[in-house]
Amino acid sequence: MGTADSTVSAEVTKSADEARSLLDEHTRKTVHWHFSDETGSPFWLEK
After folding, report:
1. For residue 19, what are the CA distances in angstroms to 7, 35, 43, 45?
2. What DSSP line would sit under 1-47, residue for residue?
3. pLDDT digits over 20-33, tens only?
4. What region does 40 belong to: left with phi over 0, alpha with psi -120 to 50, or beta?
């Protein structure tokens, strides 16, 4: 692999890591919203 390939790979890896972190945060917030006592759906809270 040449230098250009290594740079692109590092950039892609960094972008993927950042995207994964944002998705994880969004998922945690979504689950909290739907299952918390304050904002959750009665359908799910009763289960």
Report:
1. 18, 24, 31, 30
2. --HHHHHHHHHHHHHHHHHHHHHHHHHHHHHHHHHSTTT--HHHHT-
3. 999 999 999 999 99
4. beta
Question: Residue for token digits 């972190």?
Answer: 21
Question: Which residues form the domain of 26?
Answer: 3-45
> What's the rounded Cα separation, in Å, for the pair 24 and 12?
18
Distance of CA 19 to the CA centre of its chain: 7
- Radius of gyration, CA atoms only, the chain: 19
* Structural domain count, the chain: 1
pTM for the whole thing? 0.69
